[in-house]
Amino acid sequence: RNPDKELTSHPAFVLGGLIYSITENFDIDTGVKAGLNKPETDLTFLAGMAVRY
Fold it and tell me: How many CB atoms lie within 10 A of CB 2?
């Protein structure tokens, strides 16, 4: 939902990313989130990692 009560449109975005497995138990990932309308942030870069044990 849009936190600004005066606007009637909800934030809309597209999200994409990649995961690279360095080892069987360790992954790194990156992504991009792009806003499709005014209430959403224009561009966001994402990064992360996952460790399995």
Answer: 14
14, β-bridge pairs: 34
Domain boundaries, the chain: 13-51
Measured CA to CA in angstroms, residue 43 lies from 33, 34, 37, 47 at distances of 6, 5, 11, 14
Give DSSP secondary structure letters for the chain.
--S-TT--SPP-EEEEEEEEEEETTEEEEEEEEEE-STTS-SEEEEEEEEE--
Q: For every one of its 53 residues, what pLDDT tens digit does the chain have, with 9 covering 90 and above?
A: 767 777 778 889 999 999 999 999 999 999 999 999 988 889 999 999 999 99
